[in-house]
Amino acid sequence: MAIDDVPDNPAIAPATAFSAVDEDDAAANWPSGRGRAAGGDTAITRVLGILDLFTPEAPVWTVDMLMVRLGLARATIYRYIRALSDSGYLVASADAGYVLGPRFIEFDRNIRLGDPLLHIVPPYMAELRDVVNGGQLLCAFYGLRVLTVLQDRTDPDITMSMERGRSFPLFKGSPSRVILANLPTYQLRNLALHHQADIAAAGLGTTWSEFRDGMRAIRRAGYLVASDIDKALVGISAPIFHAPGAVAASLCLVRRRENVTAADEVFLGELAADACRRISAELQAFRPGAADAPAPAFPVSRVR
Fold first, then answer.
1. Which end of the chain, N or C, is less surrounded by CB atoms within 10 Å?
2. Is 110-285 in CATH node 3.20.20.100?
3. Long-range contacts of 4-7 (CB under 8 A, 24+ apart)
4. Would you kindly state where each structural domain of the chain is located, as residue ranges?
5. What is the pLDDT along the chain (304 residues), one digit of tens a residue?
6. What's the CATH code, domain 23-103?
């Protein structure tokens, strides 16, 4: 059944306004912080919570800092730190602090060599490079975040905020919102119930019907044009599906605003949509286990 064919239930999602939801209930059911799904107060979620604390703004944490932030006993913090350190996720730094460890670098290499998207998409980006004459972004999502996994740039005057590894909200930006629009209707309903303020702030509607209709219009168009993250740039994104109806990522074609006409928007939108249809078909046909699969040929930016 296509997304647009899923019947709407007024009892679940009233058309006049988003339903109010208790904040504790929302926190229990939807990802928080940097997008990790909430899973209750268990040892696993507490350990993952420690890793979530390490950011560019706060790259070093001590045991005392973690005790204050997490409200856990010193012995518990030491136990978690030891487990993470023994696995390479954390390493000791100066002044009794800890930073993210080399295991993540190993994971990054494994992702670059093993992710089907990173095997399939680079040749398409190379094919589009001269036509786009700007930049391209391959973005994937988890929870409430969209993450850039690959960036290509040929225009030296373009600076894109969505660099590899940097996440952005699901409600903001062309790569994010084209993914949002292609989520199943039940997920859109839940998002409308639990994140009405974020949706309204992003200009996506103040009622369920406005939000639903806006998402439906994006799906039917097949691509989305937006400039709400980098105002000097225009991003034109289309969705990538790992299974029929199951969105996995988006491809965004980027140009400087002064280099984009209304006709260009349509042309690049159709170009992105066509490339993503072909990528989706190849991704859905992908079967793991090919030992002799070649390493992906990542695009090399011409900008020096």
1. C
2. no
3. 4/216, 4/219, 4/220, 6/184, 6/185, 6/186
4. 23-103, 110-285
5. 343 433 343 333 333 344 433 333 333 332 344 444 444 567 788 888 899 899 889 999 999 999 999 888 999 999 999 999 999 999 999 888 999 999 999 998 988 888 899 999 999 999 999 999 899 999 998 888 899 999 888 888 887 777 788 888 899 999 999 999 999 999 999 999 999 999 999 999 999 999 999 999 999 999 999 988 888 899 999 999 999 999 999 999 999 999 899 999 999 999 999 999 999 999 999 887 654 555 555 443 333 2
6. 1.10.10.10
